[in-house]
Amino acid sequence: MIAQLIRFRRDQRGVAAVEFALIAPVLIAMYFGLAEYCQAMMADRKATHVASSIGDLVAQSDQVTASDVADIFAIGKPLIAPFPVTDLKIRVASVKNTNNVAVVEWGRGSGWAGRPKTSTVPEFPKSSTDGTKLFISPGETVIMSEVEYSYDSPVDYFLKNKVVFKETFYLRPRKGDAVTCADC
């Protein structure tokens, strides 16, 4: 009996299988977690791309109409692919520095309301040299494009709830001092 116990203790067969059985669930969970995280990062990058593209297209014009802006918003849908467009919200506005207050001249939205005319933008960035002033000079305008995208993981193991990505871009008008909107 003692000889059998000694032989059993020295037997190394099956050790690799036991080690694999202990490590495999951890490695598989790490793999799926990393894949889920990469998908979320890709959705964030896509949302950033949509915000910059929408703002850039509006900033390239000197005047737009509501239908022009709607067409530009339609460009955002293929840019977010392969992710679903149902959770994509876009808005663009022309913002002017009026007495060191960011005031909306016009705004349009897709999936959420555009910023109302003459409303203020409290989250507008300040100057890096003087934190009490806006980053644009008095009388200047910028195009502000905003995107909000709610990413829902297809796996829902690590990211059980939707993750909301928000991106905002500020672009100076390219063809003049401001981009006007005829019917906004």
Order of helices and strands: HHEHEEEEE
**pLDDT averaged over residues:** 91
Number of strands: 6
What fraction of residues sit in β-strands? 15-25%
Main β-sheet, spatial strand arrangement = 3-2-4-5
Radius of gyration: 27 Å
- Please state the overall shape, judged from the principal axes of the Cα atoms: elongated
Give the distance, in angstroms, between the N- and C-terminal Cα atoms.
92 Å
- How many domain modules? 1
Biggest beta sheet summary: 4 strands, antiparallel
Please provide a brief summary of the model.
The chain is an alpha+beta fold. It has helices at 2-10, 15-59, 66-80, and strands at 63-64, 88-98, 101-110, 141-151, 163-171, 180-181.
